From TrEMBL:
Catalysed reaction, written as an equation: 2 cob(II)yrinate a,c diamide + reduced [electron-transfer flavoprotein] + 2 ATP = 2 adenosylcob(III)yrinate a,c-diamide + 2 triphosphate + oxidized [electron-transfer flavoprotein] + 3 H(+); 2 cob(II)alamin + reduced [electron-transfer flavoprotein] + 2 ATP = 2 adenosylcob(III)alamin + 2 triphosphate + oxidized [electron-transfer flavoprotein] + 3 H(+)
InterPro entries per UniProt: CblAdoTrfase-like (IPR016030), CblAdoTrfase-like_sf (IPR036451), PduO-typ (IPR029499)
Keywords: ATP-binding, Cobalamin biosynthesis, Nucleotide-binding, Transferase
Name recorded for this polypeptide: Corrinoid adenosyltransferase
EC numbers, comma separated: 2.5.1.17
Signal peptide (residue range): none
PANTHER family: CORRINOID ADENOSYLTRANSFERASE, CORRINOID ADENOSYLTRANSFERASE MMAB
UniProt similarity note: Belongs to the Cob(I)alamin adenosyltransferase family.
Pfam families named in the record: Cob_adeno_trans (PF01923)
Molecular function per GO: ATP binding; corrinoid adenosyltransferase activity
Annotated Cobalamin adenosyltransferase-like domain residues: 4-179
Pathway involvement of the protein, from the record: Cofactor biosynthesis; adenosylcobalamin biosynthesis; adenosylcobalamin from cob(II)yrinate a,c-diamide: step 2/7
Biological processes per GO annotation: cobalamin biosynthetic process
Amino acid sequence: MVRLYTRGGDQGMTGVIGGRVPKDSVRVEAYGTVDEVNSFLGLAIAQLDDEKFADLKKDLLTIQHELFDCGADLSLVMKEEKKEDDGTPAAPKYTYRVTAEMVQRLESWIDRYHAEAPEIRRFILPGGSPASAYLHVCRVLTRRAERRVVTLAKEEPINLEVRRYLNRLSDFFFAVARCANAREGVPDVEYARSGEVFR
């Protein structure tokens, strides 16, 4: 049986693709926050009725796998580019997992789920049905993950498609949180002091 503990991190370092880094590094903070999103997403999925939300649960499971892809890309430490004997750059040994096509697919999902919810005119408060509340938690955690990735990108090279993916993903969670309320027949709660900001 494989042991769950390795003792490798007892000195405050952790393994990433390409080496080891401090556990409080910006890189670990970035992919660790993505992992938080994934954990809360699992909680949100558990709140969804299998029949009423079969399509959404399928899409959310896809996103859980893609969040692992985000974490893998973010855990890559780019070392100095190696050269072949003739001086040309060596072929990369790692292919990024998060792609522009994944971002585009998220956009199509946003449009589809957004169309199910009532027209929005004012800011709304997170909540309503339990599923919607958890999806709003996923939304704000995704925003935090995006901020961590923006910070990392200022310091080290990363797959910039991860940053784009997280930006769209927070919009997706907003759309599906409202869709969840609509399917449950629970109205969104508008922020009482909001003017009409969406036209």
